[in-house]
Amino acid sequence: MADTLQGTGLRLGRRFSDLTNFFVGASVLHLQQRLLRLAHDVREQYPLDRSQQVMTLRARACDTIQLTPLEYRGDFGIFIEEVLTSAEQMPKEPSRGLKRTVIRNSPNYCYSCGREFGAFFEDAPEGLKPTVDHVWPRALGGDTIEANLLPACGACNSAKGHIAAWQMAWIQPIVFADIDETHALSSLSKEAKMALHVRAAMSYSQQNGSSLKDAFLAIGPREPPVRIDSEQGYDFFNLRVHDDSRTSVIWTPN
Ligand SMILES: [Zn+2]
């Protein structure tokens, strides 16, 4: 992917690696989602016949998403088995007991917007209630285990469903938006802020080898957006929505 971009002679300056990461990330996620969906269908079609599932998924991966054993560097058979296993474990609601445990062991605020549970807001006149959110989305194979769950308010939980990982295709208009500088920060949508928050957590966890859940806890909930480098513009890659003084570990929000 990076080579293809380089080959086009695009002059993207300092945004080159940001955009390359974005495209690679978006493609991988897109592929992952489509494969999981295919695996889900195949499992429904042949519920009891694993070898038929393997054969059919293999054929469909080649036909519909042009993923062939030649393009895959590892053992394609094992890979197909793994995708089927992920699909098998996929959609699970946390049990009541697990929800209670997660809420008990986590801070008493929404990990995304930072609003305190029990406090009163316009959208929560009877006190904000916690829901339990999959930090790495279920649609992308995220497990329903305590290490992947954090309490979020209902508004953030349902909005985050669309964001999943920040590179999701629908976020592209925001990434490439020609943002008007005067209104840049105040007009940023909630979705864009959530995508920036998810992106910061993903990059923190990659750089520090921590789980995504610990990364969210370390960077803290969303804050008003600011530019990372005040000499640079207001594009997606130069904005952050968390307090970067919270973390003692040095990392770059890419
Ligand atoms: Zn929230």
UniProtKB/TrEMBL annotation:
| Short name of one Pfam family | HNH_5
- Report the residue ranges that make up the HNH endonuclease domain in this protein: 110-162
Q: Which residues cross the membrane?
A: none
Protein name listed in UniProt: HNH endonuclease
Instruction: Give the organism the record lists.
Output: Phytopseudomonas argentinensis
MF GO annotations = endonuclease activity; nucleic acid binding; zinc ion binding
Give the highest taxon in the source lineage.
Bacteria
Q: Which UniProt keywords apply?
A: Endonuclease, Hydrolase, Nuclease
